[in-house]
Specification:
Blueprint lengths: L2 H7 L3 H56 L3 H69 L1
């Protein structure tokens, strides 16, 4: 058996693990946009359900409430209260969105910092292994 043939047939644990890991990660990366889009579509359908529900209630209840002749001052106060609550919800949505956005940025930064640390540690580990191999090879001399 030639040296070239032997090196072509040589299987490394590191090659196996790296190849399998990369394949799995690429599959996840490929699936994420579809998954996120599906959840976005689901959430949009959920929100439209409530919007349509309130629209249907509006049509059915408008005639009933119009016949009650509720004092306009009371209706204006209800409108002011409703606007106040609505504005708080909108502010909370904006604050939550900003918070989650910053949280994702923080997580990405932490991952990048860890990746940098891992590279430094792997470089150090590789140097240590290299020195160990040299010391073993020198002891055989």
């Amino acid at each position: 058996m030639s040296v070239q043939n032997n090196s072509e047939n040589h299987v490394s644990v590191c090659d196996i693990m790296k190849g399998s890991t990369s394949e799995i990660i690429k599959k996840f990366e490929y699936q994420i946009p579809s998954l996120v889009q599906n959840y976005s579509n689901l959430y949009t359908a959920y929100l439209h359900l409530f919007d349509n529900l309130f629209g249907t209630c509006y049509i059915n209840e408008k005639e009933f409430f119009d016949k009650l002749n509720i004092d306009q001052a009371i209706l204006k106060q209800i409108k002011n209260n409703s606007d106040s609550i609505k504005n708080r919800y909108i502010e909370n949505i904006e604050i939550t969105t900003k918070f989650l956005d910053e949280q994702v940025k923080l997580r990405i930064s932490a991952i990048q910092s860890f990746e940098n640390l891992a590279h430094v540690m792997m470089d150090s580990y590789a140097k240590t292994l290299s020195q160990f191999n040299r010391s073993i090879n020198c002891s055989k001399c």
